[in-house]
Amino acid sequence: MIVFEKPKALTDAVLHYCPGCTHGIIHRLVAEAIDDLGIQGRTIGVASVGCSVMAYNYFDVDMVQAAHGRAPAVATGVKRSDPNNIVFTYQGDGDLAAIGTAETVHSAARGENITVIFVNNAIYGMTGGQMAPTTLPGQVTQTSPYGRDVKTVGYPVKICEMLSQLDGAAYLERVAVNNVKNIKNAKKAIKKAFQNQVEGKGFSLIEVVSTCPTNWGLPPVKALEWLEENMIPYYPLGVYKDKYAEEVK
Amino acid sequence: MTTQILIAGFGGQGILFSGKFLAYEGLIEGKELSWLPSYGPEMRGGTANCSVILSDTKVGSPIVLNPDVLIAMNGPSLDKYENETVSGGKIFVDSSLITRKVERSDVEAYYIPATKMASDEGLTGLANMIILGHAIKKANLVPYENIEKAMKKLVPPKKQHLLEPNLRAIELGYNY
Amino acid sequence: MSHEKVLMKGNEALAEAAIMAGCHHYFGYPITPQTEVAAYMSKRMPKIDGGVFLQAESEIAAINMVIGVASTGKRVMTSSSSPGISLKSEGLSYLAGCDLPALVVNVQRGGPGLGGIQPSQSDYFHATRGAGHGDFHMIVLAPDSVQEMVSLVFHGFDLAEKYRMTTMILSDGTMGQMMEPVSLDMGEIKQYDKPWALTGTKCERKPNIVNSLYLQPEELEKRNFERYEKYKLIEETEPMFEEYKMEDAEVCIAAFGVAARVSQNAIDEARKQGIKVGMIRPITLWPFPKKAFASAAEKVKSFVSVELSMGQMVEDIELSVRCKRPVLLCNRAGGMIPTTQNVLDKIIEASKL
């Protein structure tokens, strides 16, 4: 009896992510959601720029790799070409919340019927640990060596809170993958974000608060603790918008 | 045979529309032709002009710098283009808006109070077609018998009520 | 659509031609003097089954939406004017790196910077040399009439799909605003197999991946060499040009777009004065019709490049004729258009060399 197997929507390629990185878990959750909904054959993914740039090697679906921050615009084109296809983007915080802010905001405002998986680990991982739009106040990075000074570089961008002001966004939830309970909840949220698209409900974004042990300079377990102590208080988990639920009320 | 026509005036006087009418006339006759508006940042009220070329051979530059026929619907247009008109050319002047006379002696000048005629006849806004009608006659621009056909092509189906006043305006100028 | 000729503005004829050529997805952003293309598409697309018009939040978003549709194998286009095309440069590079077919229209205006809104040809270098980062080319087509605007849209889509690359139509404000009689009947559209397109695997095949990332330099080099083999083939087989009164010409004008129209008048005028002058009008700016100019160099004594720029195509002519003959420049810039007299004066100068 098989009690545990790899989701069908993942390929056999070995992930290139650093030890302890939570991208692997999030990839798995996305693939499980695709499997659960039986949409693998009509799912098209959009990879972004950052650590997950090579996501096209890991998901067993058609994939296109987009330029810095442009994944939601590319996804818009893919989706509008054939609305029957299920289209998702997989983006990090630098990509989605800095260089691609306009694409993020406007795909949400349009209520584009796509699913956005937003991995927020408060740092630019791929380029070696620079300050991100989501880097916490006081957090040390390669380009904020004395800690993020909000007086000179301002405050982090809270994407779920910001997008919740847009009438076009259908579903926004912030989750984390630092423990089993949160992982289970993240799975539920990601599946719902895909389910929404299947049902034509519009723009869904799941922000996954994540770790970067390598660039945070912490062992994986310590990184999970740091996430719980520092990230979650600044980025509280929960549903920020569920248009459909509001309509039911 | 190539005729280069320049229609000039204020934005809102229907400069581009009367140019289009000539273009449709040309189309019906199977002529080679081009129509080119001048465009600027202002949507209303600025100067407007329109180059129309009707020819038996392939049209070269669509930009009319030296018109064979100039239709001037305001003072600045006459000031600007009188000296650009070719020797032996024809200049049509809306004499209700332009008080001065054409100064050159090597061109034929025609004066018609198109704007006043338009308001007298209940055709406000159609001075452009009145002066064009006059030019069609005096400069032999296009055959009169195609006028209705061209106008029907130009006026969209939803605006058929504009057909009759436009035709009347052309006729008024033609018979002036 | 009937076969009889209709009167249309260049920008509108271009848009209608794209729709007739099977392009049912358009993404754009308002900018003068090309906005009519977007306006026309916004009117027509909703009336077409599956037609999509979307006004993007930015030029950058628009070109990336184009990438999205192109990756699914459908015909797609965007249009803009010079400053907007600069913004699209990133996407043009990705289209090349991903080997995707698309049609991009540049209705040029004067630059640099915000420049002006009057006609220009000063994006010649951008289109033929440096449309974005990396080693790549686009096919660049330059119509000189409303009718050619239509035929080159059809041809442009065909070339884009045949070679899996971007075709750019390099137009200008005059071509876009001008109205001329035009026939929209362009005949059959050739269909190309697109086994690479992202259509969903239907769980029946391996995933398709549209990608421009190659972290191994050996692999990236190989892709670039392969792509340049394709470019070489295009340079051999696809150049297009038109000759005007070249049979006995001693002076050869080179001009495209509106400059060619003005030059035609100047040539007719010069011939009345007994000067033997003709014109080679490049229709493809890339691939540049090098051979046509090289063989003309055997017959004529001088060339005149007529341009609405500070002189950009003039370099391609010099390269094509290997500097065997003098190449003069007759140019206006910043939104000004050379007059017939400007060109005539230069012809006279060139005839005395």
Describe this structure in words.
The complex is a heterotrimer of chains A (about 250), B (about 180) and C (about 350). Chain A has a single domain, classed as Thiamin diphosphate (ThDP)-binding fold, Pyr/PP domains (Rossmann fold, 3-Layer(aba) Sandwich), CATH 3.40.50.970. Chain A is about 40% helix and about 20% strand. Chain A is α/β, with parallel strands linked by helices. In chain A, a hairpin with a 5-residue loop joins β5 and β6. A six-stranded mixed sheet of chain B has the order 2-3-1-4-5-6, sandwiched between helices. Chain C is of the alpha/beta class and about 350 residues long. Chain C folds into two domains: about 210 residues, Thiamin diphosphate (ThDP)-binding fold, Pyr/PP domains (Rossmann fold); about 110 residues, 3-Layer(aba) Sandwich (Rossmann fold). Chain C contains twelve helices and 15 strands. In chain C, β14, α11 and β15 form a beta-alpha-beta unit. At the A-C interface, β1, β2, α2 and α4 of A face α3, α4 and β9 of C. β2 of chain A pairs parallel with β9 of chain C.
Topology summary:
The complex is a heterotrimer of chains A (249), B (176) and C (353).
Chain A: H1 23-37, E1 43-47, E2 62-65, H2 71-81, E3 86-92, H3 93-99, H4 101-109, E4 115-120, E5 123-124, E6 130-131, H5 150-153, H6 159-163, E7 169-176, H7 180-198, E8 203-209, H8 213-216, H9 220-234, E9 238-242, H10 243-248
Parallel strand pairs in A: 1-2, 1-3, 3-4, 4-8, 7-8
Antiparallel strand pairs in A: 5-6, 7-9
Chain B: E1 2-10, H1 15-29, E2 32-37, E3 47-55, E4 69-72, H2 75-81, E5 90-94, E6 108-112, H3 114-120, H4 127-138, H5 147-154, H6 163-174
Chain C: E1 6-9, H1 10-20, E2 25-28, H2 35-44, E3 52-55, H3 59-71, E4 76-80, H4 82-97, E5 102-108, H5 124-128, E6 139-141, H6 146-163, E7 166-172, H7 173-177, E8 179-182, E9 209-210, H8 217-237, E10 241-244, E11 251-254, H9 258-272, E12 277-282, E13 284-286, H10 290-296, E14 302-307, H11 313-320, E15 327-331, H12 340-351
Helix pairs in contact in C: 1-2, 1-6, 3-4, 9-12, 10-11
